[in-house]
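Predict the assembly for these two chains.
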Amino acid sequence: MSATPAKNTRAKKSVKTELKRRFDMWLLQHAQALVFSLGQYAKHPINNLLTTAVIGISLALPTSFYLLLDNVRLVSSGWDGSLQVTLFLQNDVSDDDAFTIAKQLQTNQKIDDATVIKRADALAEYQTLSGFADALDALDENPLPAVIIVHPTLDSADEKDIAALITELEKLPEVDNAQYDSQWINRLLYLLDIVNRVIIILSTLLALAVLLIVGNTIRLAIFNRRAEIEITKLFGGTDSFIQRPFLYSGLWYGIFGSLIAWLLITVSMQMLRGPVKQMANLYASDFELIGLGIGNSLMMLGIGVTLGLIGSWISVKRHLRAIEPV
Amino acid sequence: MIRFTNVNMAYPGGNEALKNINLDIAQGAMVYITGRSGAGKSTLLRLIALIDRHTRGQIIVNGQNLERVRNRRIPLFRRHIGFMFQDHRLLFDRTVFDNVALPLVIAGYRHQEIKKRVHAALDKVSLLTKMNSYPMALSGGEQQRVGVARAVVHRPALLLADEPTGNLDPALSWDTMKLFEQFNQVGVTVLIASHDLDMIKRMQKRIITLKNGRLLSNSTSSQEDSE
């Protein structure tokens, strides 16, 4: 009886060492499969590079659309808060009268702020931005009216209230025309929503394409290495041992595909950066294109790796079982 | 080591490859299976390796009733067996070393151990100098010896060889058989299917003769001579 506890601890110890031995073996075999699959990749560099390039482009397309959408959102988000109504005054209203009207408007609860653009300022701005400077110089007098820009306290979503405010403002005798500038921004936002949906559909299709590409490539690899698989099964290779290098091939396709996608996007963004900055300067904006960033890059890598693994897994499950030693 | 009791094997489609086989092969024996093509030699080996499953009767290999070996346990079961083939089935995109190392890699040996054992196996078949060659660069006889090294590198309890000398000239065949005999002498049970009767008789080992799926005779070659 007294020997039992000692025996027990020894048994426990041997179980522990056995577990450790198995874990070491498992780790070793995974490392072998990882290196082996990389070696297989390097063995047919042209073929694999072509496959990887297709995967890379399939990943780069939706990602760059998203990036573009992000950039457009960034631009429009600057406008979204600045809901404004532009009041074009009658041509015979002087700048001084305009200032009085603006002051009166500011007492209105629905109006946060009202600023006047003087007739001369409006002309100067129009001359620099429109490119009609010479034509305007030829005119005897300033054809532009004074303008009051009104920032309502309302939210852009309350379209009814805004419409009511506009009719109220249009009734003022000095006002010729009131324009609600944010309407087209709302339309743009809806348009962006549609574009967003289109991108989701496109991404799904391209993700499916990546799955098919990886799956088909792995399928061909399995059939090319049929003899090896048969021999491995004969010498006692388990299914998981045999499928491991193929799964890791999928992993490599995902990693290298994402890398190519990242390169494509980064180079394209670099090419666009200059012209976009020039255009932003024209609109007196310091807007700059945002690139992929670390977070988005990692997400793309994650998606690429996941698709590669799933694609190879499906292929392995479908085709490996069919090969039995003969 | 191997015991067949009333074993029948019918392939799908009704082709009966083996009929009512009773057989007992002791541990450490070296046995030849002979007969014409289609007599059931290969089928017998395939049943022992669980490549196919028999349809009736009982087979016990290395103390294990094969009916009880579930499909997912087959890989572990096969690790006690070494295989040799007529067309040697080496992997041509791997070096001789990697070919021979395959059974050890499958079993999860460490690199140093693999190196040691592969060297020993290649030394045994006198191919240590060709370790880094590719099988394509070797002669037919050398390729066959690589196959032998691969079959024994993991020190199996049982060696199954299906027409291992089918493509070799008589001298090389004889050398290969002598090599098998050496492994047999260190305790490996060896089972060789071959139709090369002349050579088999010269080896003075037990011979099992199959004809149309039936066991015809089950004797040592000396007994057969006296018949």
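The mean pLDDT of chain A is 83. The beta strands of chain A are 85-89, 111-117, 147-152, 175-180.
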